[in-house]
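Possible regression after last week's pipeline update?

I re-ran a chain I had predicted before the update to compare outputs. Posting the input and the new output here so someone can diff against the archived version. Not blocking, just want to make sure nothing changed silently.
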Amino acid sequence: MERRPTVEVRTEPKRRTPQEFQYVQLRLASGVARMTLNRPEHNLLNEDMLRELVDGIAFVADHQEVKLIVLDSACKVFCGGIDVGEYTSERVFQMLDAFHSVFAGILETSKPVLCVVNGPAIGGGAELAAFGDLVIATPKALFAQPEITIGVFPPLATTILPFLVGPKIALELVLLGDPVTAERALELGLINRLVPESKLEATVNDLIERITSHSGPVLTMAKRAILSGMGLSLRDGLKHSMDIFLNELYRLEDSQEGLRALVEKRKPNWKNR
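New output (post-update):
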């Protein structure tokens, strides 16, 4: 009798609820999902913490009322990178899978992601900040990709940095591994705003208020039009953006409401649909 080859069936890990999280605090309020890294003292990323970030992003995706994700830290360090204890031969593949899933989730989520960096962001922490759609930092922030000094390279930074700062600067940051001050990060375009720590909360709240005052679906489409056009030629990117504008945006009630409000000289009343 011919033996059939066995097929290994991989099951996806069960998604955890925010109440089960140990290292990430997730709170929903007024159209905002605030995800706070909280693994003292340095927010070193282990597999459980990474899976909580993945599950948190997926949880937020199920809540249509959320318009913005704010990613910040409860520690003096924004994120010190991957916990070196995870770099064992038995765990490295699972850890890297979780690591990649976090960044894919940030990139693919329909919600804009605002990163608030008020301390060092090192290695995987710098990559985490780099993948934020908007980044606010204080002078306490420091960004570094030091992986080259321990015989590896940062796989996600080597992908995203050329888009953010160009290939020459990306090569400098990765090949030297030198830290970048918040001031230099602003010059390079790694962050959007640099504010004194005393004004950080007010600046974050102002951006939250301004972003959440817009239509949720329009925010989603605007983010998708920008990010999904990266890597396309100018001609193809324009065609792609116009396709979203004409065939999706104009079908929204909110886009029609916005035009009516403009004509009637009043504030729009968004339905978020």
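Follow-up from reviewer: compared with the archived run. The beta strands are 24-29, 32-37, 68-73, 113-117, 120-122, 134-137, 142-144, 180-181, 193-194. Marking as no regression found.
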